[in-house]
Amino acid sequence: MSVVVSPHVTTLNHTGVSHTVFRLLGIPGLENQHMWISIPFFISYIIALVGNSLLIIVILTKSSLHEPMYLFLCMLAGADIVLSTCTVPQALAIFWFHAGEISLDRCIAQFFIIHCTFISESGILLVMAFDRYIAICYPLRYTAILTYTLIGKIGVSIFLRSYCTIFPIIFLLKRLTFCQNNIIPHTFCEHIGLAKYACNDIRVNIWYGLFVIIMTVVLDALLIFVSYVLILQAVFHMSSQEARQKALNTCGSHVCIIILFYGPAVFTTLTQRFGRHIPPHIHILLANVCILVPPMLNPIIYGIKTKHIREQAIHMFSQKQE
């Protein structure tokens, strides 16, 4: 999820015209390459859709995987499907059919779902870190602490947090008059990317958007860091080398996914803030990497690195062949 925090404030314009239809260009400057660019987009989407759907089916149908760690992973896979489906088909429609026209309401709805899902994924990664902390630091109390009731409440809390923080942005956008350009050089709609075409003062949008990011994604990243500091302290106090290695292995997949999720997002934000000489199409491609790569690789990483999921998936397919 890309965030632009430069203090771009538009001046008032009293033309009385407010655009209700916008046009997404895709990746500006690379229009002639759209057909080739669509290939990795399409492949990534299919892998994300199939991989995450398979992960959900395996976890929900195998009772041996009804543990907190796998249930949180199931939530993450569901969020990945929503995030991919909300963005990639729109991009493919632009690349293949030049179908970039989008209404203001649909644009706001798309940004709302993207931002809500992104913040939800950040929250899920945080509770997965908490899950690993409990499993390693309090193994005997693990199932007593993380009950199904608590897991359900955590899931609802993650959704409500993302919904409540993003919902006010709808009103912040609805109050604006879009009397400037209605051409959006992107593959999907985002908050500031849309707000900058308004004739109104958008400082409230900029500062609230920054507040949301700091209080959700940035805070989650800091708490995840603290969790892993505590986990590492507990691991290095273990007397057995074998127990130490086993504890670190249980965190391996989660650490990979954390890097995949936060890495591109941080890099994209930094390039937008400080890379003023970087071509616009690079910014757009990086923003799409944040959407494409984690949903595609998350099920692959957990499928390869988690023995129980791999075994259950193989067992499920072998039963179908029989």
Automatic annotation (TrEMBL):
Top-rank taxon: Eukaryota
Membrane-spanning residues: 35-58, 70-96, 108-130, 150-173, 206-235, 247-270, 282-304
Domain G-protein coupled receptors family 1 profile: 51-302
Entries under PROSITE patterns matching the protein: G_PROTEIN_RECEP_F1_1, G_PROTEIN_RECEP_F1_2
Location in or out of the cell: Cell membrane; Membrane
Major location category of this protein: membrane
GO molecular function: G protein-coupled receptor activity; olfactory receptor activity
CDD domains xref list: 7tmA_OR52B-like
UniProt keywords, alphabetically: Cell membrane, G-protein coupled receptor, Membrane, Olfaction, Receptor, Sensory transduction, Transducer, Transmembrane, Transmembrane helix
Matches recorded under InterPro entries: GPCR_Rhodpsn, GPCR_Rhodpsn_7TM, Olfact_rcpt, OR51/52/56-like
Family: Belongs to the G-protein coupled receptor 1 family.
Function: Odorant receptor. Putative odorant or sperm cell receptor.
Official protein name in the record: Olfactory receptor
